[in-house]
Design brief:
The protein has helices at 8-20, 87-100, 123-137, 153-163, 202-213, 220-228, 242-286, and strands at 2-3, 40-42, 54-56, 62-64, 75-80, 111-116, 146-149, 165-166, 168-170, 175-177, 181-185, 191-196, 229-232, 237-240. By secondary structure, the chain is α+β, with helices and mostly antiparallel strands.
Length: 287
């Protein structure tokens, strides 16, 4: 699957150009801008993210990417660059809004890796971005679960190629053209789902994380939620499956009805011996 998401400013200027273009020339407008050539996403579901590739964390320590795949918790991965004038900030804000609105907490049930694709980004800049993100999220334990990484162009390119994240550096503008997408990885570091755009519905994130967790440490309610939602590849979001909702509703109704009948039956059983004892006592007094 391929999805092309242009930088917001470029998209707006292109829209204005189309509006001002004479009708006879509109056919020539539907051409991919040079800046967006080879930019987009090719989904590589279940691809294994390289574990041995090295980066620097917010403290400057050299770390292998594999250290964040602990076999227990899924990982939210987003590729950005900190010099980005608009789109990366919008993607990061979308992630913050969505993770804040979900019940699972970063550092407890899952981890987040924000990886820079720009080798010019420094550890200090990444540390500042991380600090502001944690302040916005404002949950205990998140500092142990949200990791901002920087590194070489080769290292970030290797990860990007694995997950199908295609970006391009514009030397003239000194900016990167890249898609707006967030990846959800399994606890072992395999790509489980892609969430697109600059607005990530909390339900999509929650169900996506449940799916990426592969059933590890999720309760009954979460299993029901995972059963009732299905990922729509055309709409690129999770949707409720009516038939499954009806099945769950029917099962809950049957369980509740069975429980009620069981209670009534037990009461009836307790009442019968009591009534028999009263009859024997009456007969004995009469005799």
């Amino acid at each position: 699957m391929r999805r092309l998401l242009p930088i917001a400013c470029l998209s707006a200027s292109l829209a204005l150009s189309v509006a001002a273009t004479p009708r006879h020339a509109l056919a020539q407008v539907n051409v991919t801008p040079r800046e967006l050539t080879d930019v987009g996403v090719t989904e590589h579901l279940m691809a294994q993210v390289p574990r041995d590739v090295t980066f620097r964390d917010h403290t400057g320590q050299t770390v292998q990417l594999g250290r964040y795949f602990d076999g227990r918790r899924p990982v939210l991965l987003n590729l950005v660059y900190h010099r980005c004038p608009m789109l990366c900030g919008m993607v990061l804000n979308a992630v913050i809004r969505s993770v804040t609105a979900t019940t699972w907490s970063i550092g407890n049930e899952y981890q987040v890796v924000t990886l820079s694709i720009d080798p010019r980004d420094t550890v200090e800049v990444a540390a500042g971005k991380r600090r502001r993100a944690l302040e916005s999220y404002n949950r205990e334990g998140a500092a142990n679960g949200w990791h901002f990484l920087t590194g070489s162009a080769e290292a970030s390119q290797r990860v990007a190629d694995t997950v199908g994240f295609r970006y391009r550096f514009d030397a003239e503008q000194q900016q990167y053209a890249h898609p707006a997408v967030t990846m959800l990885l399994t606890p072992e570091g395999r790509v489980a789902r892609y969430l697109y755009g600059i607005d990530i519905p909390p339900t999509d994130l929650r169900v996506g994380l449940l799916e990426a967790s592969q059933g590890r440490s999720i309760n009954t309610v979460e299993r029901v939620l995972l059963y009732c939602y299905h990922y729509d590849p055309h709409g690129q979001r999770y949707v409720l499956v009516a038939m499954r909702v009806m099945q769950v509703g029917g099962a809950l109704t049957a369980t509740a009805l069975g429980g009620l009948l069981g209670v009534l039956w037990m009461r009836e059983r307790r009442r019968r011996p009591s009534e028999g004892s009263e009859q024997d006592e009456i007969s004995s007094r009469a005799s």
